Amino acid sequence: MSANEAMHLRPRRRRCINATHPTGVLFDLLPDDLLYHVLSYAARPTETVRALCHSLVPLNKATRRSVEVGRNDLWSLILEREYRGGVSLLVRSPESPCSVTDESGLTPPNNNSAGAGGFATQRPTRSSKRQRLLRDRTQTDPTQARDEVQAAHLSLCERTDDAHSALASLVENSDEPLSLLRLRRIFRDCGPDLAMNRRSQWGRTFLIECCAANFVCESVILRCVQEVAGRRGTDPNVWTRAEHPDAERPAIFFAVARVMPSVVRYLIEEAGASLAVEVTGRFRLVSNPSESIQGTFTPLGFAKALREAEVGSFGRSHPYWFSKLNKIIRMLSLAEKGSIITAKHGTT
Length: 348
Fold this sequence. Notes:
Blueprint: H1 3-7, H2 22-29, H3 32-42, H4 48-56, H5 61-69, H6 72-82, H7 116-121, H8 129-140, H9 144-171, H10 180-190, H11 206-211, H12 218-231, H13 251-257, H14 261-271, E1 279-284, E2 292-297, H15 299-309, H16 313-317, H17 319-336
Antiparallel strand pairs: 1-2
């Protein structure tokens, strides 16, 4: 992991705004739980710390000081709600119904067979020494929760990068290509939680990698897209990075280029893909990857440009491919007009 990756959670050191800046004053007045709700509204999960450190901290010196050595409850909320399995699971109060009460991480079941008298004679559960040490250290060290969030975030990034590497070995593998079972195995082995909107070192999210997978049919890609975008909440509007010389683009452009009507339909209706986005750059043709089209396109404009470029000999020799592209164009046209697409895939 690069040095920039290890330090990206640290507040940027740039000149602070005057201490009387209204936003800084408002920050100082907000309680920790309300401030967390504001941050969670402004940023995706596991990205609230970046919004906190890079947007709010530079407001004034008091705000910076508050975040660096204070706001322990805020950091604890971030740790508990966004990085499951962190220290916060061990420092909950013993009275909490979700508290951890033994070294295995599980709460022992109550023995109700003795009736009401069973609770009177039941021995209290002793918390582990590790729990008490973590709880005491969190209370005495004001920076402990912040450091735990940073460690949890870096661990999350490392596990996500491992999952990206495993997925990359599938999308180009003809012997063991991508499948829903193999995709779930990657998430299970690298999980339990991953930064689903984090790009790989190749600049693609999990969703885009699935849409661009080779040696698999459309139905397999659709099931993987449903897993990534539907069950795991990947944002379909995150763009690629480092695609040069090709255009940077979101997932729906890959689905259109691969001519997958069912995937396009799912991204529009279920995942919330934007149709107003415009992409400028070069796009390779399906029939001849050495040739390309250039321009600024919406998803619908890109589909029409692709049809015009492929209308020659390739379109005549691949009528089924061409009919699916026409279906995508009709689908995008209806969606842009605000119509609700109700026809099942395969109807004309």
